[in-house]
Amino acid sequence: MATNHPLWQPSSAQIEASPMTDFVRFCGARAGSPFNDYDSFHQWSITERGAFWDAVWDHCGVVGEKGSTALTDHGHMTEARFFPEAQLNFAENLLKETGSGDALVFRGEDKVSYRWSWDELHQTVSRLQQAMAAMGISAGDRVAAMMPNMPETYALMLAVTSLGAIWSSCSPDFGEQGVLDRFGQIGPKLFIACDAYWYNGKKQDVADKVRTVSAKLNVPVLIVHYAGEADVLASSLADGRTFAQFTAPFAAKTVEFTRMPFSHPVYILFSSGTTGVPKCIVHSAGGTLIQHLKEHAFHCGLKKGDKLFYFTTCGWMMWNWLASGLAIGATLCLFDGSPFYPDGNVLFDFAQDEKFAVFGTSAKYIDAVRKGGFVPKNTHDLSSLRLLTSTGSPLSPEGFDFVYEGIKPDVHLASISGGTDIVSCFVLGNPLKAVWEGEIQGPGLGMAVDVWNDDGQPVKGEKGELVCTKAFPSMPVMFWNDEGGAKYRAAYFERFDNIWCHGDFAEWTAHGGLVIHGRSDATLNPGGVRIGTAEIYNQVEQLPEVIEAICIGQDWDDDVRVILFVRTAEGVAFDEELIKKIKTKIRTGASPRHVPAKVIQVADIPRTKSGKIVELAVREVVHGRPVKNKEALANPEALELFAGLDELKS
User: Fold this and answer.
1) Which residues pair with 443 in a beta bridge?
2) Contact (CB, 8 A) for 41 and 29
3) Which of 119, 122, 276, 285 has the most CB atoms around its CB within 10 Å?
4) Given the DSSP bridges, would you call strands 71-72 and 81-82 parallel, antiparallel or unpaired?
5) What's the average model confidence in pLDDT over 476-499?
C-alpha cells in the first residue's frame, strides 16, 4: 500500500549545498531572471535547449573548442546537431585530474584488491596509447574488449578514445557466439581479453573461447593478466601478446589527445540481442560526455574526490556511465564477480571500507538482499553514503521501503531509467525533490520526456508509451552497418512521427514523478486491456515463498491469457494453496484483471548478462517459435523449462 508521505525529503541545508542548486542559479543569471522552482527550470531546459546545454558545457568545464553554436534543430529529431563546430577528445575530459589521489579502487571478489592513483592511470594510458599508435590504430578504428570491470579496462578504453578510435566491450562470461555476434559486426583492429576471471570463488577459464574468437576475428590479440596465465594464452595465439609485452617498449610521457568533432563516435554498445543479432548502437564522444556530466554533477550531486560505485559488468551501459565519473574527478570503485560471494555483505563491506558517496546497483540486487535477510543498516557504517541508485528493471514499492528500513533511513534513493540506446537516463533522481514510494522522481534536465497514449496524445494518470519529443545530445549517432539509417528510424521513430518512442510502458504520478510498468513490447493485453508485467511482479515477489517470477501473454482462444511462472524458495511446497495465495495477492494488490490464468512453477528463469529477465524469449518458446539468439542469455538452458508444457495445452 502506497504511503501518503515522502520516504525522503532533502533538508534546506542539503538543497543549499547541492550542485544542482548552484547550477540553477548559474543558469538563472545567464537567462536574466532567477528560476522560481525546479519545475520552471526543467521547462526552460527543454524549451531553451541550446542555452541549457551551452550552460552545462561551461559550468562543467568541458575541455575543447566549443564553437559559437550549441544546437541546430530545424527538422527531424535525427537531424539535430549539438555543438556542430566543437572539437574535443573524450579521454582528455576524463583525465583532467593528476596526482597521487585514488582514481580507481578495485576488488575482484576476495581474490584481488588494488588501487591506481591518477598519475598511475595517466602513465598506463600513455604507454598503451603509444603501443596502439605504433600498431596503426587511429581515429575511427574499432577496438573490442572482452574484459572484467578492472582498472586495466578503463586505461585501455582511455587509450583507445584518446586516439579518436572507438571502444566496444562485453564481459568475459559471454559465450563464444555472443562475442562474435557483437564484435564480428564491427571489424575491430585489436581484440583484448583477460586470461581468466573469478566468479563465485572459482576461477573461470576463457582460453578456448579467446582462441576461437580471435581466430574468427583474425586480428591481433592483447591478453590482460587477471586470474590465469597470460603468457601461456598469448603465446598460443597466432598474433597474441600480453599487456606487459605490449607496453614494455614505451616509457610513460604526457598523454596526447586527438580532438575530433562533437558527434565523432566514441562507443559502440549492443542491444541485448534476444530477438536477433544485436544492434550495434554508435554513441558520440560529445553527446555521451555532456549527458553524463549533467547526470553525475547535477542529478547525482557528484563532486571531485567522491567515491562512486556501480555494480556492473563491461557488457552493460552502466559501465560506460560509471567511467564518466572520472570527468568529475570522482574516484571509481570497481567490483568484479558475484555480489553474493562469499556472502551478501561483500558490496556493503566495500562501501563501508571505501566510504562510498554513491552506490549504484540493480533493482534485482536490492530485492535479493531483502529476501536474503540482510539488514546492512545494522551491520555496516554507511554514514558516507548519500545517494543509492537503482536501475535495470523497475524497483518495486517494497524495494523502496527496504532501502529505508534495511539499508539507510536518510539516503537519497534514486530509481533511474534510460538504456543502452541513449547510454544514459530519461528519468532519474533529483536532489531537490522528495522521494515517494515506487516512483522515479522525474525527467532529466534537457529531456522532453512525456507519456503518450496509442493515439499520440499526452496523458496524465494513465499508462502509455514513454516518449521524448525533442532531440537530446546522447541520441545514437547511427547503428553500425545501417546504410541510410532505416534500422535506426525503425527502432525509435516508427510508432510516432518524429518522436522518440522508447518502448517503456509508463505513467505520470500526482507528484510529477514516473512509474515504469515494464517494457511495452512485453505488455500483456488480456481482453484488450494493457497490463504492465512489473505490476504483477510487484505483488507476487512480496511473498516470501516466491524468489522471482516471469509473466507472459499466451495466445489463447482468440485472446491473450496471462501466464505466471514462479521460482519458489527452497523447501516451499508448490500446491493449490500457494497458487491461491499468489492469485489472491495479485487480485487484492493490483486488480482482478492482473490475475494470471495459470501459475506454473519453474526451476530457473532466463535472463540477460546484465540480469534482466527475458519475457519475449519465454513467450516465443511457449508459442513454439525459435529464439533467434540464445547467446545473449546468461543461462540459455533455462528456456528449455518453458517448452511444450502440458499445463499450457488446456
Assistant:
1) 427
2) no
3) 285
4) antiparallel
5) 95
Instruction: Tell me the whole-structure pTM to 2 decimals.
Output: 0.90
Please name the amino acid found at residue 86: A
Starting at the edge strand that comes first in sequence, how are the strands of the sheet with 331-336 ordered? 112-117, 102-108, 331-336, 307-310, 358-362, 387-391, 412-415
Total number of residues shown for the chain: 650
DSSP characters for 538-602? HHHTTSTTEEEEEEEEEEETTEEEEEEEEEEPTT---SHHHHHHHHHHHHHHT-GGGS-SEEEE-
Tell me the C-alpha distance between 50 and 72, whole Å.
Answer: 8
Q: What is the grid cell recorded at 422?
A: 541513449
Please list the residues that pair with 494 across neighbouring strands. Answer: none
Our CA dihedral for 203, 208, 212, 217, rounded to 10 degrees, sits at 40
- Residue 245 corresponds to which cell in the numbers above? 609485452
Instruction: Read off the C-alpha cell for 346.
Output: 561483500
Give yes or no for a contact between 460 and 466, defined as CB atoms under 8 angstroms apart. no
Q: Can the peptide bond before residue 443 be classed as cis, meaning omega within 30 degrees of 0?
A: no
Sign of CA dihedral 152, 154, 159, 160: positive
Q: Reduced to 3 states, what is the DSSP secondary structure of residue 273?
A: coil
* Rounded (to 5) percent helix, strand, coil in the chain: 35, 25, 40
Task: Determine the Cα–Cα distance for residues 87 and 97; give it in Å rounded to an integer.
Answer: 20
The letter for the amino acid at 432 is L
Closest by CA position to 550, among listed 565, 568, 531: 565
Distance CA 446, CA 166 (A): 26
Q: What is the pLDDT of residue 168?
A: 98
Q: Residue 531 forms beta bridges with which residues?
A: 524
pLDDT (tens digit per residue) in 387-441 = 999 998 889 899 999 999 999 999 999 999 999 999 999 999 999 999 999 999 9
Query: Phi, psi at residue 326, to the nearest 5°?
Result: -60, -30
Q: Return the residue matching grid coordinates 568533432.
A: 261
**Alpha-carbon distance values, 204 to 85, 198, 235, 592 (Å):** 47, 6, 19, 47
410: its cell numbers: 536518510
Model pLDDT for residues 175-233, shown as the tens digit of each residue: 898 899 999 999 999 999 999 999 999 999 999 999 999 999 999 999 999 999 999 99
- Say if residue 10 is preceded by a cis peptide, omega within 30 of 0: no
- For residue 471 the three cell numbers come to 532531440
Residue in this structure with the C-alpha cell 594510458, named with its chain if needed = 125
Report the DSSP beta bridge partners of residue 88. 64, 260
C-alpha of 511 from chain center:
25
Q: Which SS3 state, helix, strand or coil, does residue 453 take?
A: coil
DSSP code, position 106: E
Q: Which amino acid is at 356?
A: F
Question: What residues pair up with 192 in beta bridges, in sequence order?
Answer: 145, 222
Burial of residue 15 (number of CB atoms within 10 Å: 0-12, 13-18, 19+): middle
Nearest to 38 by CA among 388, 428, 445, 424: 445
- The secondary element (H helix, E strand) that includes residue 383 is none
Q: String of b and e for 532-544 (b: at least 16 CB within 10 Å)?
A: bbbbbbbbbbebe
What do you get for the CA distance between the two ends of the chain, in Å? 35
- Distance CA(48)–CA(71), nearest Å, equals 10
How far, in Å, CA of 560 to CA of 304, rounded? 53
- Under DSSP, the state recorded for 403 is I
Query: At 450, is the secondary structure helix, strand, or coil?
Result: strand
- pLDDT tier at 1 (50, 70, 90 boundaries)? very low
Taking the C-alpha atoms of residue 132 and residue 166, their distance in angstroms, rounded to an integer, is 13
Pairing of strands 166-170, 142-146: parallel
Helix pair 38-47, 19-31: axis angle to 10 deg? 60
- Residue 590 CB burial class (10 angstroms; 0-12, 13-18, ≥19): middle
Strands, E assignment, 314-381: 331-336, 358-362
